[in-house]
Design a protein that fits this description.
It is built from 27 helices and 39 strands. The chain has 950 residues and is α/β, with parallel strands linked by helices. It has an 8-stranded mixed beta sheet, sandwiched between helices. Strand 18, helix 10 (373-385) and strand 19 (390-395) form a beta-alpha-beta unit. Helix 8 (288-298) runs parallel beside helix 9 (315-330). The longest helix is centred in the first third of the chain and has 23 residues, at 191-213. 47% of the residues are buried.
Amino acid sequence: MQPPSDQQDRHDHPSHWEADVVLRDGGTARIRPITAEDADRLVSFYEQVSDESKYYRFFAPYPRLSAKDVHRFTHHDQVDRVGLAATVGGEFIATVRYDRIDERGMAASAPADEAEVAFLVQDAHQGRGVASTLLEHIAAVARERGIRRFAAEVLPANTKMIKVFTDAGYQQKRSFEDGVVRLEFDLEPTDRSLAVQRAREHRAEARSVQRLLTPGSVAVIGVGRIAGGVGRSVLRNLRDSGFTGSLYAVNAAFDEGTEIDGVPAHRSVAAIEEPVDLAVVAVPADRVPQVVAECGERGVRGLVVLSAGYAESGAEGRERQRELVRQARSYGMRLIGPNAFGVINTSPQTRLNASLAPQSPARGRIGLFTQSGAIGIALLSGLHRRGAGLSTFVGSGNRADVSGNDVLQYWYEDPDTDVTLMYLETIGNPRKFTRLARRSATAKPLVVVQGARHSGIAPTGHAVQATRLPHATVSALLRQAGVIRVDTVTEMVDAGLLLAGQPLPSGPRVGILGNSESLGLLTYDACVADGLRPLPPRDLTTGATPADFRVALAEALSDDACDAVIVNAIPWVGDDGTTADPETLATELRLAAAGWPAKPVAVVHVELGGLAEALSAAASTRPDAPVSVPGGESCAHPFRRAERLPTTGTDTAVEPPAEEYRIPAYPAAERAVRALAEAVRYAQWRREAAEPGRVHEYDDIDESGAADRIAELLAKDGGDPRGATLAPDDAHELLGRYGIHVRQALPAPDPDAAVAAAGRLGYPVALKTTAPHLRHRADLGGVRLDLADEDQLRRAYQELTDVFGSPAELRPVVQGMVPRGVDTVVRAVIDPAAGAVLSFGLAGAASELLGDTAHRLVPVTDREASSLVRSIRTAPLLFGWRGSAPVDTPALEELLQRVSRLVDDHPEVVAVSLEPVVVAQRGLSVLGASVRLAPPPARDDLGPRTLPGY
């Protein structure tokens, strides 16, 4: 089917149809609509396509495009006919188009909802996932234009294109006629299509970071001719780290054929004959565009931009940063920075230190990401002092392109990383971050410190989405996603050391032993304060020897009532006059711990110089070969299968090789306990995440009817993008379609109207004001309850108006009484950054004052609804506190799930508030409700894969 060739562009395309994407191999491309200005690009593109690919596209030899073809393929109305191109370096590498058709396959307009789709990919770029990415984007465009189904005709020999369609995850029909395979598929996203999309996103973004962290060759651009300076320092760090690939120094002032610090020097990247995988840019900001262009033309695969003078310096620098990202992506390159600290990879296959850190960290199992160079220095130094090793490090600076989300994608399947630490000053895409964090946390601990959390100001240089949620809410949502959220970098290092070197505890029961009674009591108190269940401390007395510590630790670990052990140690003097020997104590503790590798051990040392070093020197962060003694458990590290070392015929364990055990040591009991408590909470989250529950399907929910009603209400409002709050009757009707029934409240503008309303509802009734300053404030006296007859109602009406003002100001209403219970509040809101959030708390000023509200991300499962109810501090009031009757929490959990379903099914519902919800011993009553609608965003997290726009 070919539409008339004289059709002209009738519509400008929406800006969100243009996007940068990451392809399967980690490179980038730009997707945008094809316009009339693209004629020359289309011709050039077509000339580079093989005859075979042309044959597959047109089902016949088609060596060149005619002028009529070029016009037809570059002129679209952006409604019934749309064409998209993937570009690199400004040139086409692939195209896709759809043409709306009717049931006979002829050109059509709306309301026809089917379109024919066709692709053409340049041979040199086939296999990079270009077609599958274009399919996601053209399908999203088609859905916006009212198209619900695609049809494609493909030659049987064109197996690559058939695979693109069949692997996409949509519901399909397939037929074969006249030597052509015809595929038809609905464009409505399915669970499988979303899973395919997410998997492709993961592979592409992980690969893009892998290319930056495992280069085969590195060019440092901006190396000074004299010692010192950023470029020269990075070159020295790369050389001294033993980088396994090829290394080049670049400066326009160099003479070709010379060397700098033993490294080949060149005047430009173009002068380097061998391929260059990574360029480290350390030139002034005004010279960076020229360098990026040279790298792009040379085929460099990625950039680390150390140069400053970008968004951190003001508006002019912000625009310079935007242009940097656009330029790098136009060449298919991803970049770390600008204003970056650099990257490190300790793998022996790479040994990369392309950073400003003068010394490479030891090899280990911890991945580290930081947005701040100063914090990066502090963390690298702190981990080094504690004897911890790293797998990889990324200091992203302004993180204009590569972000923490990208690095999380890489770490998720990185076999060299077991624990991930992140210092984040901003979260560019919180919705995506929580999604990735939840997936990552099911396999590896993720410890996060969020800086600038109380200032309300994003650090200069960071382009972020605004969020209306307070930091406490964001923190709660991160914890729900399995993130170990700590407040300081010290706490992050403390938790990281324990998680990297010890197994996850199976419970909160903590054994405490040591040679100081006072330190044991402090540890006990700290455990109680952090929600752990400490066992009575065991005092070994100050005369305890290292052998006594070994015996006591082995006994504690063998106790089935103990899940973890904290050992306290202070200096001692033996009966024979010998003084403390930290190395001997470290050996004995290692030996005891090796017998029970499934239980974590932490050590608190006070003025015992050398013990922390001895413990860290005795192990790396790879505890994957534990020792066992008879009766010991076989589980070692939570992320690796345990291996047993051979034992002797006695009950004495064989001492393991020194590098296989690491016991974290802390200078204060509170720090050790806090790290252990975070591990306990994370382990509990892991166990719960293994059985996340399910989102209930309620038979009485009218999803389609609600959708139709929402469309009517939005149309009545005139399509205001800001949205509007529904009238009470409309809100109640919409909620009713989801089985949420609001008690009727009748207006009472005067006493006689109040009496008439009570007559309709039946006594006893409640009289309350709905004025904004008194609404839901029973503590101020704006509510009168249990009014049994007309006299009481009239008297209450008079009292309200005498105290608070005229009926016009108070807007009183009459409502029937409901069974007594606990007043609660249920809310849902669509945050522009975090997505849909469900909140729950008790009603009243005290809960608001204390901020006692719990939050969950939508959609909420039955298990999450149950935990939401129980996670507020005032939850005991729902379960029979001080002899009161427990209320119907199952009914409350069902209400939470129904509200969750409403906002999840309909993105137009941007806010729901149910207040109060009175939960009685049997059932509940919703006494007040408001709903706000707004047009949905053009794209959300379920849309096609894109990089953040610049």
